[in-house]
Design brief:
Blueprint: E1 17-29, H1 33-46, H2 49-62, E2 65-74, E3 80-88, H3 90-95, E4 121-131, E5 137-149, H4 158-164, E6 169-177, E7 180-181, E8 187-188, H5 203-207, E9 209-216, E10 221-228, H6 247-266
Antiparallel strand pairs: 1-5, 1-6, 2-3, 3-4, 4-5, 6-10, 7-8, 9-10
């Protein structure tokens, strides 16, 4: 049993800012120009502003926050954005633990909320569907930022976010900024223990991904990159079944997809 952390007695409000930046990539192969357009249209519909608003509203509930204001927009020819101004709920936030443990999955019932506006925080999401001009590769990227001021930590929403999107690649950054003072005047630059972002993701999910950490502990900066381990070609084809393709064509497409994923994961072009 993990021993709970001793609660800090603060002088005034908790002034720490905790920011989770969460990027996901979904990769697809669409052989023809028409299929590429259909894929982009499909993604644009599945992750439109209304659906994204629903996801972010659940994120707010998970971290114990109240939605104060929502601005959302679908774009032409594709893409969507949602921005939420949220506030910490003092009662719910006291009940939530910041200990390193995975948060709930999408099918898990969420806690009832307690409404009491306290402070400024925000959640944003932007989507970026795009396609290779002649390589048959299409990608969908969603960038989500959850920034909270006070005790609550956005890391509790990480499990939910990973499972809310079709994530081939996940890139996560977490940073705690600023400081807060206790009643004796001592500064605290972080109010919870964290070794790795991986501690906030359930084991079954982690087992599906190759994970790399780059952490700067003295600066309270944490970075994790995840890429799916198993590769089933049918999961990446749009408008065609793998059995309809010759073995040579299957190998060619598989190589293109794996190269695309590797380049995104390592952040560089491969020759």
């Amino acid at each position: 049993m993990v021993k709970p952390l001793k609660r800090l007695k603060l002088y005034g409000f908790n002034n720490l800012t905790k920011t989770l930046s969460f990027n996901i990539y979904d990769i697809c192969y669409a052989r023809s120009e028409a299929q590429r357009r259909e894929y982009i249209e499909y993604i644009d519909e599945v992750y439109n502003a209304e659906r994204l608003t629903q996801i972010l509203t659940q994120v707010a509930e998970i971290i114990g926050a109240t939605v104060l204001n929502v601005a959302r927009q679908d774009y032409e020819p594709q893409g969507a954005s949602v921005t939420m101004l949220i506030s910490e709920e003092p009662v719910a936030a006291r009940q939530l633990s910041n200990q390193a443990a995975p948060g709930p999955l999408p099918e898990t019932p969420l806690p009832e909320s307690v409404v009491a506006h306290l402070d400024k925080s925000h959640i944003t999401v932007h989507t970026y569907p795009e396609s290779h001009p002649d390589g048959g590769i299409s990608t969908f990227r969603a960038d989500i930022d959850v920034s909270t001021c006070g005790r609550i930590s956005p890391l509790k929403a990480l499990n939910f976010l990973i499972h809310s999107f079709e994530s081939d690649i996940v890139i996560v950054d977490y940073r705690v900024r600023g400081f807060t003072r206790d009643v004796r005047g001592k500064k605290h630059f972080i109010d919870h223990k964290i070794h790795s972002i991986q501690d906030y993701i359930d084991k079954e999910t982690l087992a599906r991904y190759q994970v790399v950490d780059v952490n700067i502990y003295q600066e309270n900066i944490f970075h994790s990159k995840m890429m799916l381990r198993e590769f089933d070609l049918d999961n990446y084809l749009f408008g065609v079944d793998a059995r309809e393709l010759a073995p040579r064509e299957q190998r060619r497409i598989r190589q293109r997809l794996q190269r695309e994923m590797t380049e995104i994961f390592y952040g560089r072009n491969l020759r």
